[in-house]
Hints:
It is a single chain. The chain is α/β, with parallel strands linked by helices. 45% of the residues lie in helices and 15% in strands. The protein is built from 13 helices and twelve strands. The protein has helices at 12-19, 23-31, 38-51, 57-64, 83-95, 109-121, 136-143, 169-182, 199-214, 231-244, 256-269, 286-290, 302-317, and strands spanning 69-74, 99-104, 126-129, 149-152, 163-166, 188-192, 224-226, 250-253, 278-282, 296-299, 326-328, 332-334. The protein has a six-stranded parallel beta sheet with strand order 2-1-3-4-5-11, sandwiched between helices. Helix 8 packs parallel to helix 9. It starts with 11 loop residues before the first helix and ends in a 5-residue tail after the last strand. Mean pLDDT is 91; it is low at 1-7.
Amino acid sequence: MGRKAINPDVSMKDVARLAGVSPMTVSRAMRAPGMVSPETQERIRLVIEKSGYVPNRVAGSLSSNRTTLVALVVPSLRNALYAEMIQGISDVLRRQDFQLMISDCGYSLEQEEKLIAAYVAQRVCGLILHNTRHTPRAVQILKNNRSITCIETGNLVSDPIDIAVSYSNYAAGAAMAEHLAGLGYRNMGFASLPVRNNDRLRERRRGFITRLRKLGLPVAPSLIIEVEPGLESGAQALGKIVDTDPSVDAVFFAGDVLAAGAVFECQRRGLAVPGRIAVAASDDNDLMQHTIPPLTTVRFPRYEIGVRSAEAIIARNMDMYAGSRTVDLGFEVIQRGST
């Protein structure tokens, strides 16, 4: 077979003949390695390596309407929150020889729609979307292409397009309200990034406010604010809330960087945390553990979300998925020194 080289003239039938198996076995070995014995898999792998065979993914997708390509669309590639989820997806796909493509929609539903259309045209076998709110045309595209598994991960919606693998942002907001109220805080504020195109933050805020009201605690609209991303924005949010109502004794920030900025502002102003004011965050990461004091936060299982999303796509691709349309992976309130 000579030296290794990419040879477009080598066909799947040639690989099958050289490996002593059927073309179907070669196809299965590339599409779903777990369905082929290790010995056969290794024999096929050696033939492919030596012959330089490269499968025609386009032709294969046209005939079977399936590929091993999985696409992920997140709101921003600058947001480190998605790193754990991406790693979970990648770890699972790599073991099954599936490939991951990643794009960001810039918090734009219209851009997400364009990306969905482009990936569907490429015959991906799965689409993972962090958004759970989409344009009507995006929904229609996905519903018209049921052979493509669609996983929504940003929120646990009751009626997903296909499958939702996530947690309830509403319940997370409510849980933090319960936590702070249980510690004796009575006059609280809330700060987040803009919620206009972010149903996740909107639900987290709604859960927090609704639970405070059920607990009989005041919720002043002037203490519920939206700011832009960044440490400085968190500092400004804390300052605005405290200046608006000096009696505020706790603030829940729906974002880790905002909360860290708030702690720095408290230090600048000489406000003891939590002696004078408590600061709570969401989206646990290393930063939360190393501020002074360490930040109380809501921890979401982002790596596990990635793993379960990828597993669902692979199972669907093998016609073996038997899971629910909604997979609730929950969350955890982590109490640290800031409350």
